[in-house]
Amino acid sequence: MVSDQAAAVFDDLRPYLHGVAYRLTSSWADAEDVVADAWARWSGHAESVDDPRAWLTRVVARLAVDHLRSARVRRESYVGPWLPEPVITVPFPGASAPIDPLDALVADESVRLAFLVVLDRLSPEQRVAIVLHDVLRVDFAAVADVLGCSVNAARQHASRGRRRIDTDDPPRRVAADLGWQVLGELTAALRDGDTERLVRILAPGVVLTADGAGQVSAAGRPIEGATAVARFLLGLVALADRHGAAFAVEPVQVNGDPGFVLHLDSARPRDPRVAVYGYAVRDSVVAAIYAVLAPDKLTRIPPRVHAPRASTPPRS
After folding, report:
1. Structural domain tally of the chain?
2. Could you tell me the residue range of the domain that residue 298 belongs to?
3. Which of 18, 154, 165, 303 maximizes the CB count within 10 A of its CB?
4. Tell me: the pLDDT tens digits for 248-304?
5. Helices and strands, number each (H, E), in the chain
C-alpha cells in the first residue's frame, strides 16, 4: 500500500509525467495510459526511491518506448495521414502567468504541433534520446538505461534524430500577436472567398495535412503549394454552403499556438462535426496547416469550447 506521502509525491509530479509521456507518444490517451502504468510501478517501489522525479521519468520513458513501437505497427494500417492528438486550451489574452499545469505544458516549444510532427518521423530510440536529453536535460547515462544500450549508442540516437530535425526544419513558434494576426487574415480571406489574398497569406511551399483516420471525410494525402491549399480551403467553404451546412469557428490555442475549433452542423454522415485546425508561421506567412478531424483524437476538447459563439477568429 502506498503511503499518503508517496501518493502526494506522485500527484505533484503527475502533470510533469503527463508532459513527458505526451512528448514521447504525441497522444494524450497513450500518455494517460503510460502515467497510470507508472503509478502501478511507483506503488511497489516508492519507499525505496531516492529521486522520485528521475526514477519516474525513466519509468515513463521505458513505458512510452513500448507504446511507440506498437504505434508504428498500428500506423501501417492507418487510413490517410497521421497527426498528433492536439492539446486544446482557451486563450486568456493578457494573462501574465500560466493558468494551470496544462497551460504551462503547451507554453513549451517542444509540444508545438510542428515539432511533434517531426518527432513522429524519428525512430522510437531517436525520439526518446531527443526528448529526454535535448528537451528534458536528462544525462545520456540515464537515456542509455531507458533504451537498454550503451552511452555511445544513446548519443548516436540523439545525433541522428537531430540531423532529421535539422533537415525537416520545423517552423519555430512566433509571438502570439503575430500568430493571431495571421490567423485573422487567413480566416478573413476564406470568409470573403478571396483566392489571391489567401495565396499571399500562404507560403509558396505550404503543406496542409488532414487526419480523418478514415472515419470522416478528409484529404487522403498532404496538399502542397499555396495555390493548391487555397483552392482546397475555399472548396471546403463552398461545399458547406452548397449543402446548407452551418459552421462556426472558435479561437483556441492548439498546443500553445493560435488555432481554432470548427463546429459543423451538417446532414452529410461523413462530415466531421468537430475539427481542430492548427498552423505554423514562418516569415509572417502560413508554412503548414494541421487539420485534426479524427473523432478519437478530439474527445478531450474542453467543454467550454463546445458551444460556438463566433463565426470567425478575432481579426487584428
Report:
1. 2
2. 176-305
3. 154
4. 788 899 999 999 998 877 767 787 788 999 999 999 999 999 999 999 999 887 654
5. 11, 7
